[in-house]
Design brief:
Chains: A mainly alpha (229), B mainly alpha (47), C mainly alpha (244)
Number of domains of chain A: 1
Distance between the termini of chain C: 38 Å
Largest sheet of chain A: none
Number of domains of chain C: 1
Strand content of chain C: under 5%
Order of helices and strands of chain A: HHHHHHHH
Helix content of chain A: over 70%
Shape of chain C: flat
Number of strands of chain C: 0
Shape of chain A: globular
Order of helices and strands of chain C: HHHHHHH
Structural class of chain C: mainly alpha
Distance between the termini of chain A: 30 Å
Number of helices of chain C: 7
Oligomer: heterotrimer
Largest interface: B-C, 28 and 36 residues
Number of helices of chain A: 8
Number of strands of chain A: 0
Strand content of chain A: under 5%
C-alpha cells in the first residue's frame, strides 16, 4: 500500500506540473497533426481506400511514436531544474515508484493525444474499419504502454548525456521493434480485416507479453540508473 | 581461380567479390591501425 | 611488471603473426584452391568471409553481456575489478559492431547479384540489423554520457539488448511463417565436404584476429583508465601542496 501511495504521489505531481504549463500535450498534439497532414498530402486517401487502410496503421503508430519522443524528453527535464533529481535520490521512497509514477503520467498524456488523434484520422483518411473495432481499444493502450515504459526508462538513461535528444530515439527504436511490429500488424489487421481473429489475438498476446517483460526489467533496473554516479 | 580471374570486374558478381575481400581487409586492418595509433598517443602510466 | 609487459608484447606479436598466416592460408583456400560452385559460380566465395563474421558477431555480444553483468556486480563491491570489467565490455562492444557490420555488408553485396535483392525483412536479417543498431547505440550512449556514469548506463543497456535480440528474432520468425517473404542466404542443405577447408581456416583465422583486436582494445582502454587515475592523483597531490 505504501508503494502505491508513493506511485500516486509521483503521478499527481507530474499531472499537476503538466496541467500548469501544458507544453508536453500541446507539442504532442501539433506534431501528430503535422504527421497526419503530411501523409494526407503524400497519397490520396479518398481515391484509394484499400491502400489507405493498409497504410493508416503504420502512419498512426509513427505519429504516436515521434510525438511521444518529444514528450518523454520533456518529462525528465522537469527533474533537472532546482536539483530535484538529487532530492529524489535522497528520498526514502523506492526509486522505482518515481519511475512508475512518471511512466503512468506519460501514458495518460499519450492516451489523451490518441483520443484526439483517432477522430482526426477517421476524418482525414476517410477510414472505415473493416474488422472488429473494439479490439483497437485493446491494442492501442497495450502498444502505447510499450512505447511509454521503455521511453521513460531510456529518457532517464540519457538524462545527463550531452546529446540527450538524439539518444532517446536511437535507443528506443531498436528495443521497441518487436512491440512496434505487433502493434502495427495488429492495427493494420483490424483495419483491413486481412487477419483472422486468432492471428490478431496472437499479436495482442505478444504485445502483452512484451509489456510485462519490459515493465519488469525497467522497474528492476531503474534504481541502478538513478544512482549511476 | 587465378589472380587474373579474381581481379576481374566484368560482372556485378565479380565486382562484389573483389569489394568484399578488399573491403574486409581494409576495414579490419583500418581498425587495427586506429588502435595502434591510439595506443601510441596514450600516455604510458608511470607504474 | 616490466618483464610481464615485455612477454605480453611478445605474445601479442606472435599471435598477430599466426592470425595473419592462418588468414592467408584461408584466402588461398577460398579463392585459388576450391572449385567454383554449381549455381553461383565464383560469387559464392563471399560466403567464406561472410560466415566467420556472422558466427563471431554472435559471440562477442555475449562477452559484452558477461562483462557488463560483472561490472554491475562489482560496482559497489570492488571498484577496481569493476573498472577492468568495464574495459572488457567496451572492447567487446566495438568488435561486435565491427564484425556484425561486416556481416551485414558482405551479406548485402552477396545478395544483390545472387538473388536480385539487397535486403529482406526476414527474422535472421532483421535481428542482425537490430543487433548492430543496439551496439552502435551502446557505443554512442557511452560516448555521450558524463564520465563516471558511462559504465553503469552502458551495462544497463547491454542487459536490455541481450533480452531484446531473441525476442525480435522470435516475433519476426512467427510473423514470417504467417506471411512468407524472401529469405536471404543459405538455408538448409549442408556444405559439401570439399568446401569445408576454407570455411574452417577462415573461421579460425577471423577468431584469432577478433580475439587479438578485442584484447588490444581492452589493453588500450585499461591504459586510458590508468592514465586518468594518474591525472586525478596528480591533481589531488597538487591541490594539497597549495599553502593554506
Amino acid at each position: 500500500m505504501n508503494y502505491l501511495r508513493h506511485v500516486l504521489d509521483h503521478l499527481r505531481k507530474d499531472l499537476r506540473l503538466e496541467w500548469r504549463s501544458r507544453d508536453s500535450i500541446n507539442g504532442m498534439l501539433f506534431f501528430a497533426l503535422l504527421v497526419v497532414v503530411v501523409f494526407g498530402l503524400a497519397f490520396d486517401p479518398t481515391g484509394y481506400p484499400t491502400t489507405t487502410r493498409q497504410i493508416a496503421g503504420g502512419v498512426l503508430w509513427v505519429a504516436l511514436l515521434f510525438a511521444s519522443i518529444t514528450a518523454l524528453n520533456l518529462s525528465w527535464a522537469r527533474e533537472l531544474r532546482n536539483q530535484v533529481l538529487e532530492a529524489q535520490r535522497m528520498a526514502p521512497s523506492p526509486a522505482s515508484a518515481l519511475f512508475v509514477g512518471k511512466a503512468l503520467a506519460n501514458m495518460l498524456f499519450v492516451l489523451v493525444v490518441e483520443a484526439v488523434l483517432a477522430p482526426i484520422f477517421i476524418i482525414f483518411f476517410n477510414l472505415h474499419v473493416l474488422g472488429n473495432a473494439w479490439l483497437l481499444v485493446l491494442i492501442l493502450p497495450l502498444g502505447t504502454w510499450a512505447l511509454v515504459v521503455n521511453g521513460t526508462f531510456f529518457a532517464a538513461l540519457g538524462l545527463r548525456a550531452r546529446n540527450r535528444e538524439l539518444l532517446l530515439p536511437l535507443l528506443l527504436l531498436p528495443i521497441s521493434l518487436p512491440a512496434l511490429l505487433a502493434m502495427v500488424q495488429g492495427t493494420t489487421g483490424i483495419l483491413t480485416a486481412d487477419l483472422d481473429s486468432i492471428q490478431i489475438k496472437t499479436w495482442i498476446e505478444q504485445l502483452a507479453g512484451y509489456d510485462i517483460v519490459f515493465t519488469t526489467i525497467c522497474i528492476l533496473l531503474f534504481e541502478t540508473v538513478l544512482n549511476a554516479e | 581461380m587465378t589472380w587474373s580471374s579474381f581481379l576481374n570486374f566484368s560482372t556485378m558478381g565479380h565486382r562484389h567479390l573483389v569489394f568484399v575481400y578488399f573491403g574486409v581487409w581494409i576495414i579490419q586492418g583500418g581498425y587495427l591501425a586506429w588502435l595502434a595509433w591510439s595506443w601510441n598517443h596514450t600516455k604510458t602510466p608511470r607504474r | 611488471m616490466e618483464q610481464r609487459t615485455h612477454s605480453l608484447r611478445g605474445i601479442a606479436w606472435l599471435w598477430l603473426g599466426i592470425a595473419i598466416a592462418v588468414l592467408v592460408v584461408g584466402f588461398r583456400q577460398a579463392i585459388f584452391l576450391t572449385p567454383a560452385e554449381a549455381t553461383m559460380g565464383d560469387l559464392y566465395r563471399i560466403f567464406y568471409y561472410h560466415l566467420p563474421h556472422a558466427i563471431l558477431g554472435l559471440i562477442f555480444p555475449y562477452v559484452n553481456l558477461a562483462a557488463s553483468l560483472a561490472f554491475l556486480f562489482w560496482r559497489r563491491r570492488d571498484p577496481l575489478k569493476a573498472l577492468t570489467a568495464d574495459a572488457l565490455a567496451v572492447a567487446a562492444a566495438e568488435v561486435t559492431v565491427l564484425y556484425v557490420g561486416i556481416c551485414l555488408a558482405t551479406g548485402m553485396l552477396w545478395g544483390k547479384p545472387a538473388w536480385g535483392i539487397w535486403w529482406a525483412w526476414d527474422a535472421r536479417l532483421t535481428s542482425e540489423l537490430l543487433l548492430w543498431l543496439l551496439y552502435v547505440s551502446y557505443l554512442l550512449l557511452r560516448r555521450y554520457s558524463p564520465s563516471g556514469q558511462a559504465g553503469t548506463l552502458g551495462a544497463v543497456l547491454s542487459v536490455f539488448a541481450a533480452i531484446d535480440v531473441p525476442i525480435v528474432y522470435m516475433s519476426i520468425q512467427w510473423w514470417r511463417t504467417q506471411h512468407p517473404a524472401p529469405v536471404f542466404g543459405p538455408n538448409g542443405g549442408g556444405i559439401d565436404r570439399q568446401f569445408w577447408p576454407p570455411v574452417l581456416w577462415n573461421i579460425v583465422g577471423w577468431l584469432l584476429w577478433g580475439v587479438l583486436i578485442m584484447l588490444f582494445r581492452f589493453a588500450l582502454e585499461r591504459r586510458r583508465q590508468l592514465a586518468e587515475q594518474e591525472a586525478a592523483l596528480q591533481a589531488i597531490e597538487a591541490s594539497l601542496e597549495i599553502p593554506q
